[in-house]
Amino acid sequence: MRSFTIGFSTCPNDTFIFYALMKNKISDSKSRFIETLTDVETLNEMAFQKELDITKLSYHAFGHLVDDYILLRSGSALGRGCGPLLISDLPYKPEDLTNKKIAIPGKHTTAAMLLRLYNNHFEQLVPMSFEKIMPAIKEGIVDAGVIIHESRFTFQKEGLKKIVDLGSWWEDTTGLPIPLGGIFAKRSLGKEIIANINTDVRKSIDYAFRYPREPMEYIQQYAQELSEDVILQHIDLYVNTYSVDLGEEGIQAIRYLLKSGYDKGIFKTYRDDFVI
């Protein structure tokens, strides 16, 4: 049995997806996985150094890495009503933020790319870990921020206000679901091994859907927000039919994002063979 390094985020959608695979519930797997759990921007940066065989990546980061990694059909965070939100503690209009400090959850996150596609004139972008963004707004370190993950469900309780729903903007503009992050394998692993890994990921998702309560302890071990209600909302929003298999609409949405990034000079390369 061959061993591979794998990286995924500590967010509930990823720990839900990978629970069965990491806990050896997939009895017919041909692979063994040595996992790294960390935030997605750290995984993005690790991928630029080609550190992991299989990894979660933001689609923004992947646009820079299409020659090195290829997308699995299973495991993605992609859907409707799940995009990043631009928020503040004051009721700004988007145009008011042109010269204000805006926190982004990492330079290579899809959230950062969506903000740039929405308005390329925001001049003071401040990268920071996603869990630090709401406190930074409240403390006046930044004027606004783009939030992702569990923050979508808690920002209003913190007295913060939505300025723009970047996911809704994307959906209204393109008619497509919003691609946030996916699971990628090094192209150098070869088609057969990559296909087997994709099968493992899909079986791990199927297992989690069959036994949804079983992964909860594992999920809470890593979650930023420990409320079970928030965790379940998070999983329900980000783990869906596109996570099981992207399908043609999911692939179309990713293609549109990558092509848009290439056309606007964000990416130097575009490849149509980006998915297995």
Describe the structure.
The chain has helices at residues 12-22, 40-48, 59-64, 110-118, 133-138, 151-154, 166-174, 191-210, 216-222, 228-238, 241-244, 247-263; strands at 2-8, 31-37, 54-58, 69-71, 77-79, 85-88, 101-104, 124-127, 144-147, 161-165, 178-186. The protein is α/β, with parallel strands linked by helices and 276 residues long. Helix 1 (12-22) links the parallel strand 1 (2-8) and strand 2 (31-37). Helix 1 (12-22) crosses helix 8 (191-210) and helix 4 crosses helix 7.
The proportion of residues in beta strands is 15-25%
What is the arithmetic mean of pLDDT?
A: 96
Structural class: alpha/beta
Give me the number of helical elements.
12
Overall shape: globular
Beginning-to-end CA distance, first to last residue: 22 Å
In sequence order, what are the helices and strands, one letter per element?
EHEHEHEEEEHEHEHEHEHHHHH
Largest sheet: 6 strands, mixed
Q: What is the percent of helical residues?
A: 40-55%
Oligomer: single chain
Specify Rg, calculated over alpha carbons.
18 Å
| Uncertain runs | none
Number of strands: 11
Concise account of the structure shown:
The protein is an alpha/beta fold and 276 residues long.
Salient structural properties:
276 residues, alpha/beta, 6-stranded mixed β-sheet, 12 helices, 11 strands, 41% helix
Describe the SSE topology.
Layout: E1 2-8, H1 12-22, E2 31-37, H2 40-48, E3 54-58, H3 59-64, E4 69-71, E5 77-79, E6 85-88, E7 101-104, H4 110-118, E8 124-127, H5 133-138, E9 144-147, H6 151-154, E10 161-165, H7 166-174, E11 178-186, H8 191-210, H9 216-222, H10 228-238, H11 241-244, H12 247-263
Parallel strand pairs: 1-2, 1-3, 7-8, 7-9
Antiparallel strand pairs: 3-11, 4-11, 5-11, 6-9, 6-10
